[in-house]
Design goal:
The protein has 19 helices and 15 strands. It is of the alpha/beta class and 636 residues long. Bound molecules: 4-O-methyl-alpha-D-glucopyranuronic acid (GCV).
Length: 636
């Protein structure tokens, strides 16, 4: 071919490729494998799960051969990868371990290169909690409507439409690539209708799609369901008709979904019904459901997120311990207490929830929030792994049987809204498998698979992501401030928020308590004594104004504006410096991102670029509104 034609051909080819790159909408997530159809895969057993492992490796593997071997000596769900010449062997004690091993091999291929690896999950329950409503909306969802298409019920319940099926399969691949092994499909503010036959048929279809990927299905239930569905005249857990109703409902579920996981329950919390409505305890309620599920191996995940009921008037952050500690030891064996990482509500920073120190006899799970309700939603780039790692510094993974993540997934083309919000789904999954992984190692893996392996890109963006949570804390609510969000949607700042007709625990002024003298919530022994719920050495440390780490200062203490801090500057000067730092950090994000325009496909590059600009404007707004308000409170 003539030289000039060769150049033209190669230019056209590049444009074509660019055209393809331009079309990236993020729907491939971190599974952007190139189809090579190169690897020969052999295995000694067959099952739907192994068929998926084979197909992923056959299509996307770079090795010439991979052998899949069942080896009963390996730990449950774990696997071993051994490189062998130009091939590899994956061993596992179960089919699902082989699938996890296959995805781990593909990850290695995209990141570090193939190497020997033994791996097993730290937690047996690694679940996503979807707050999806039956009308298709998602509570605190910022990425479109529910992926499950609840509207496709009745006549359509027995199968999924093609488009939905593809999206659900992609969801399953993504989860299995991380080792996530369960999905709670519906909102904890649960509609009783989820337990009606039409919806259960739909759940069974979803469960069947998820099963080969090792994902068990769970449901959130409304405690008053039998009554709400008109089948009993009470939901009292000690009433035998109610107990009978739940037993037969559970058997109806297992007839459709033999590997059904169990129930997640929000009871007597924020207006939801519960056993307290009948003078019964949370243990009475949880045990009634647990008894119905026990014959099938199902579990109850009972949330400790309760306030404003039995302990009304008490400091909200103390109420979970006050409520559940007296019941420790009274729960059936298949009940797990599920608690948010902090004692309040998924704030940008909270100290760990002391319920993890106090409950000793009941198995516990932590609930993280992947969806960024309080961290800029799907508009701000905030990488959450450092926050979850911070939690594990205080609460040992050994004390937990599982982790749950409130999902940030919807039917947006890229599933998560902000392209970088995908990193939070990814990081949740990786940490739920192995909480000892560093947040930087996870972000690097994610960047390489999601965008580019170019070294400078990975190093710069990983550094930016690593600091992004602290930056968000700084521009929103530094030094231990909390819950100063705009009412209800929780997006922007509203430090002056107060409405006499709202519960006081929903009003920002309840939390910052700013006045002419100072700011912060006195939770030391001089105040609400919330510090007393912490184990040593934290109890003493948090109690002391001098020793309290500055990131929790205003969480535990009401501090004078001119209080001298360790760096010699006053509290006020420090507050200003933190807000300024947060804003200037975010300003820098865009310049970092702009260096890499040529490395990222144009659609995703531009999307991120616009969002970073918005984040910068929002950060400025946070600083102006908050500092302006604090100044007014100081009397300036
Ligand atoms: C599902 C917070 C959120 C609510 C959420 C609740 C919970 O209050 O704002 O949307 O409800 O937590 O976790 O139950």
């Amino acid at each position: 071919m003539d030289r000039i034609y060769k150049i033209l051909f190669s230019l056209t080819f590049s444009f074509l490729c660019l055209g393809i790159a331009c079309a990236e909408d993020g729907s491939s997530l971190w599974l952007r494998y190139t189809s090579l159809d190169k690897t020969q895969v052999s295995s000694d057993t067959h099952s739907p799960t192994i068929a998926i492992a084979r197909s992923e490796l056959e299509h996307y593997g770079t090795l010439s051969s991979v052998k899949l071997v069942i080896d009963k000596g390996l730990p449950s769900e774990g696997f071993r990868i051994q490189a062998k010449g130009d091939g590899a062997e994956i061993r596992a004690s179960q089919d699902i371990g082989l699938l996890y091993g296959a995805y781990a091999l593909l990850r290695q291929q995209q990141t570090s290169g193939i190497r020997n690896l033994r791996s097993a999950p730290r937690f047996s329950l690694r679940l996503l909690n979807h707050w999806d409503n039956l009308d298709g909306s998602v509570e605190r969802g910022y990425a479109g409507k529910s992926l499950w298409k609840w509207e496709e019920i009745d006549g359509q319940a027995r199968k999924m439409s093609r488009g939905v099926e593809q999206r659900v399969v992609q969801y399953c691949r993504a989860n299995a690539s991380l080792g996530i092994n369960g999905s709670v499909l519906n909102n904890v503010n649960a509609s009783p209708k989820i337990l009606s036959p039409a919806y259960l048929d739909k759940v069974a279809v979803l469960a069947a799609a998820m099963r080969p990927y090792g994902i068990r299905t769970f449901l959130s239930i409304n405690f008053a369901s039998p009554m709400a569905l008109g089948e009993t005249d009470t939901a009292d857990p000690l009433d035998s008709r109610v107990q009978q109703w739940w037993s037969s409902k559970v058997s109806e579920i297992y007839a459709r979904i033999p590997d059904f996981g169990g129930f997640l329950v929000k009871a007597n919390s924020e207006g939801q019904p519960g056993p307290g409505d009948y003078g019964r305890t949370h243990a009475d309620g949880a045990n009634m459901l647990a008894a119905a599920l026990e014959p099938y191996g199902g579990i109850v995940m009972w949330r400790s997120f309760v306030y404003g009921a039995n302990h009304k008037g008490e400091d909200r952050v103390k109420q979970a311990v006050s409520e559940f500690l007296p019941m420790d030891g009274q729960f059936r064996r298949n009940v797990i207490l599920q608690s948010k990482n902090g004692p309040l509500d998924f704030q940008p920073r909270e100290p760990y929830a002391p319920i993890f120190d106090n409950i000793r006899q009941t198995p516990q799970m932590v609930e993280f929030q992947i969806t960024q309700e309080y961290l800029g939603q799907s508009k701000h780039l905030v990488y959450l792994a450092p926050m979850w790692k911070e939690f594990f510094r205080f609460v040992s993974p050994h004390r937990l049987v599982g982790v749950a993540g409130v999902a940030n997934i919807g039917d947006d083309p890229n599933y998560c809204g902000h392209p970088f919000s995908q990193a939070n789904w990814y990081a949740f999954g990786r940490l739920s498998w192995d909480p000892s992984l560093s947040s930087a190692c996870i972000s690097q893996e994610w960047l390489m698979q999601t965008f580019s392996r170019e070294e400078h890109f990975v190093a710069s963006l990983s550094q930016l992501m690593e600091g992004s949570r602290e930056d968000c804390v700084d521009y929103m609510m530094p030094l231990g401030l909390h819950h100063i969000f705009k009412f209800d949607h929780h997006y922007g700042p509203e430090p002056d928020g107060f409405r006499a007709d709202y519960p006081i625990e929903w009003c920002p002024v309840y939390y910052h308590k700013a006045d002419a003298q100072g700011i912060g919530f006195e939770r030391s022994a001089k105040g609400t004594d919330a510090v007393a719920q912490y184990r040593r050495p934290y109890r003493k440390r948090y109690d002391s104004l001098r020793k309290c780490p500055k990131e929790y200062l205003l969480w535990f203490h009401h501090v004078d504006w001119d209080h001298p801090m360790r760096n010699g500057k006053t509290l006020w000067e420090n507050l200003v410096a933190h807000y300024d730092r947060g804003v200037s950090q975010v300003k820098g994000y865009r310049s970092v991102w702009q260096q890499f325009e040529s490395l990222v496909d144009s659609q995703r590059w531009q999307e991120v670029d616009h969002l970073l600009e918005l984040q910068y404007r929002n950060a400025q707004e946070w600083r102006e509104v908050c500092l302006g308000y604090w100044q007014k409170m100081k009397g300036e």
